[in-house]
Amino acid sequence: MEQRSALVTGSNMAGKTTFIKMLASNAILAQTVGFCLATAATVPRSTVMASIHGAHSVKSGKSHYFAEIETIDGFIRERAYGGIKMLAIDEPFSGTNTVERIAIARAVLESLGE
Picking from 5-19, 48-62, 65-79, 91-105, which range would have the lowest pLDDT averaged per residue? Predict the structure, then answer.
């Protein structure tokens, strides 16, 4: 996966989120304590960032969509400075209608591309 992107797809409850969490956890373990849960792995030093579940709340006045936009904006800004090497976005813009969700997810992925 070095210098590449991957799109993980599958049916509901197939383990996509678990798989993404496993990849990120192993990257962090490899960089911090020198091992990961694999028979063999080559893990380049990287900054790991993820958006798994948006942190929305009534108290803060942030909707799920707004919280996700803030997170994605942070990723784009960090990426512009070369700071992110591993990024996981789970079910981007899931609360948005299908046409807009696909369009905005594509725009985000294109802006994060190299």
Answer: 48-62
Q: Rounded to the nearest 5°, which phi and psi values hold at 99?
A: -60, -50
> SS3 for 14?
coil
H, E, C per residue of 58-81: CCCCECHHHHHHHHHHHHHHHHHC
- pLDDT greater at residue 95 or residue 105: 105
Q: What percent of the chain has pLDDT over 70?
A: 80
Q: Per this entry, what is the length of the chain?
A: 114
Is 58:95 a contact under the CB 8 Å cutoff? no
C-alpha 63/C-alpha 59 separation (Å) is: 10
- Cα gap 16→50, rounded to integer Å: 14
Whole-prediction pTM value? Answer: 0.65
Can you tell me the distance from the alpha carbon of 1 to that of 24, in angstroms, rounded to the nearest whole number?
A: 13
